[in-house]
């Protein structure tokens, strides 16, 4: 029975840790949103924040896998003795609800950031297209006016 209490504590700590990671992800997503709102994107900082988020996602996967394995181990005992573990079960339910709320918030912010990033790429692509178009027009004008390739006479000083 003592072992069961330890398992319950581990599961609760796992949910708390997952919740903490999700809170950090929320902050990171908000930071990414601010970066994307800037006129000039700091690509290095943005890449670093994406790398950090990837690490957090991996940590959440590990937490989930450990939680699932542990839950499978204690599931039958929990179902048989619900009254005995009522407080722990209630605490886990509260934590799961909090985790779900944070998960939804993270997904919403990520979707918003994804849209912002796609819009930024589209605008930059349009700017590049316009710059190429302008360059071609200028080159065409110079070519047609005979100015391209024409070098005006140069005065050379032959004195040494």
TrEMBL record:
Superkingdom of source: Bacteria
Residue ranges the record marks as coiled coil: 68-95
Keywords from the named record: Coiled coil
Protein name per its UniProtKB record: FlgN protein
Organism: Anaerobium acetethylicum
